[in-house]
Amino acid sequence: MRIVAAGVSGFIGTRLTTALTDAGHQVTRLTRSGPTGPGESHWDPDTGDLDSAALDGADAVINLCGVGVGDHRWSHDYKRLLWSSRINPTRLLAGECARLGMPVLINASGIDYYADRGPRIVTERGLPADTFLGRVCQDWEAATASAREAGVRVVNLRSGLVLGREGGLLPKMSLITRLFLGGRLGSGDQYWPWISATDEIRAIVHLLTGSVTGPVNLTGPYPVTNAEFTKELGRTLGRPTPWRIPGFALRIVLGQFAEAIIAGRRAIPVVLHDSGFQFEHPTLPDALAAEMARRAR
Ligand SMILES: NC(=O)c1ccc[n+]([C@@H]2O[C@H](COP(=O)([O-])OP(=O)(O)OC[C@H]3O[C@@H](n4cnc5c(N)ncnc54)[C@H](OP(=O)(O)O)[C@@H]3O)[C@@H](O)[C@H]2O)c1
Questions:
Q1: 3-state DSSP assignment of residue 297
Q2: Which of 164, 167, 229 has the alpha carbon at shortest distance from 193?
Q3: Least CB-packed of 19, 260, 261, 273 within 10 Å?
Q4: Atom 47 of ligand 1, nearest CA residue
Q5: How far is the centre of ligand 1, averaged over its atoms, from the C-alpha of 32 (Å)?
């Protein structure tokens, strides 16, 4: 397939583009700072600057754009960037996909879409959250509407915590745990839906073909609570995790970002399962062991 990919200089995108090219697909990367080589095309999602020729004739567009949720304290300006770095690229690409009759648009979203339902199971039919990240996810998915209305097969990736040693939350939590500072966050009872980075990439590749459309939970089949996650990470790293950081302390240290850590969703991957996807790492111990042992390429 000929695939155009945006937001792929980061953690998930780097692994994804390697997997796609290894599988024989031809990938054109949209880059905000380049192009620096062949297979790249410059764009600016904030001004709408995009070379349509880069997308013309492609079989699919994959968009993973969005500044990191946990990379900075959520100041007023950073919250605007959390929103605009997701909505602007999505709106622009969805509009181009609609105009060009693109067969498929795979667009990032997040599990924060869902309201916290405690221990109740959350499927793709779950209710949206009335939180900052919940509203960002709703706007993010709504920004793909122009493509969907034009008949493009749009897939919204509601990813859980993507576990990989080179990016996302795992390296930060591993460092804390290795320093003997690991412990439950908040009550520890909140469910943290997770997926190994290996399965995240495999699932995105799986969704490129077939007929799945709409939201898809990219989460492992057995979500665990924060307390269970913390304990398992400690076991994998050979460290005790006796501490508990209460919610009020997290709010003082992390500001509003703490709301994303304290909230939980017991999300399960119904659509992925029904589409025949098989997880390589179905359980958290499998995922942590495999990702920790993985060598960077
Ligand atoms: N990692 C997780 O656990 C996780 C969980 C749920 C959802 N997600 C979502 O999956 C996507 C990829 O995650 P990731 O972990 O790979 O993130 P990442 O490493 O931070 O990469 C995000 C990408 O966003 C692009 N970007 C950065 N600032 C931007 C801006 N101002 N405007 C437009 N694009 C910008 C960058 O691409 P370029 O520099 O190439 O443009 C970068 O490669 C994100 O949308 C994220 O919200 C991730």
A1: coil
A2: 229
A3: 273
A4: 66
A5: 13
Ligand 1 atom nearest 8 alpha carbon: 43
Q: What is the residue whose two structure tokens read 């990919």? A: 5
Measured by CA distance, the residue closest to atom 41 of ligand 1 is: 7
- The residue nearest atom 28 of ligand 1, judged by CA position, is 67
- Name the CATH superfamily housing domain 2-293: NAD(P)-binding Rossmann-like Domain (3.40.50.720)
Q: Per-residue pLDDT tens for 146-155? A: 999 999 999 9
Rg of the Cα atoms in the chain: 19
Tokens linked to 155: 């897939």
In angstroms, what is the span from residue 152 Cα to ligand 1's centroid?
23
Nearest alpha carbon, ligand 1 atom 31: 85
Output the residue whose Cα is nearest ligand 1's atom 2: 162
Looking at residue 145, its pLDDT comes to 98
% of residues, the chain, pLDDT over 70: 99
Residue 114 DSSP symbol: B
* Residue 139 token pair: 């706007």
3-state DSSP call for residue 154?
A: strand
What digits encode the pLDDT tens for the residues 202-236? 999 999 999 999 999 999 999 999 999 999 999 99
Predicted confidence at residue 296, as pLDDT, reads 53
CA-based nearest residue to 72, from 278, 255, 198: 255
CB-ligand 1 contact for 126 (6 Å cutoff): no
Q: Give me the mean pLDDT over the 259-281 stretch.
A: 97
92 close to ligand 1 (CB < 6 Angstrom)? no
Handedness of CA 79, 5, 223, 292 (dihedral sign): negative
Of ligand 1's atoms, which has the minimum distance to the CA of residue 69? 47
Q: Please check the confidence at residue 133 and state whether its pLDDT lies above 90.
A: yes
